[in-house]
Amino acid sequence: MGRETFTIRKVEQIILPVLSECNFQLADIEIIRGKNRAILRIYIDKNGGITVDDLAHFSSRIGDIIDAEGLFDHSYTLEVSSPGLNRRIRYPVDFDRYAGKEIRIKTRKKIQGSNQISGILLGMEGGSVAVRKGESRILVDIEDIDHANLIYDWGDSNGGKKRYGK
After folding, report:
1. Are 45 and 24 in contact (CB under 8 A)?
2. What are the sequence ranges of the domains in the chain?
3. Model confidence over 24-56: pLDDT tens digits?
4. What local confidence, expressed as pLDDT, does residue 95 receive?
5. CATH code of the region 3-81
6. Could you tell me the pLDDT band of residue 136, with boundaries at 50, 70 and 90?
7. How many CB atoms lie within 10 A of CB 29?
8. What is the CATH number of domain 92-164?
9. Residue 161 has pLDDT above 80, yes or no
C-alpha cells in the first residue's frame, strides 16, 4: 500500500464517524502533495444536497482531529467540498446509489479494446461494476477502475449541446 493510499484510508477511518453523526456521505478524498504543502480535499454529500453551512460545520469538526493524527509531514490545507454535478464515483455503495445515471469509467487495463467505457450505470454485481453500453452489458472489476464520473446531461437547458463529465 502506497503512502497516499495509507493516508486516505486513515482519513476515512477518522472522518466516517463524524460523517455518520451528521448524516453526510463520503463522496471522495484526494491528496495533492506539493513541495512544502499538501492539499487534503474531502468531498461530502447528503440526501437533498449539501449546503455551504454543512461544509463549514464538517470542516470545523474534523480539522483538529486530522491535525492530532499527524498524517502530514509538512503543512497542509484542508478543503471540504460538494462533489459537484460530474461527481467522481469511488465507493461500491455509490455505484448502486447512482444506478440508472450516465457514467464514464477510465480503466487501468483495456476492456473490449478500450480504457474508457461510457454508458448507463447498472450498479454493483459482486466485485464488479455493471454498465449498459448500447445493447451490451459490460462488467468492470472495481479494482481495475482508475476513476469513474457521472456525466451530467443539461437536457434542453443548453440546446442539448453539452454534457459534462471527466
Report:
1. yes
2. 3-81, 92-164
3. 999 999 998 888 888 999 999 998 889 999 999
4. 95
5. 3.30.300.70
6. very high
7. 18
8. 2.30.30.100
9. no
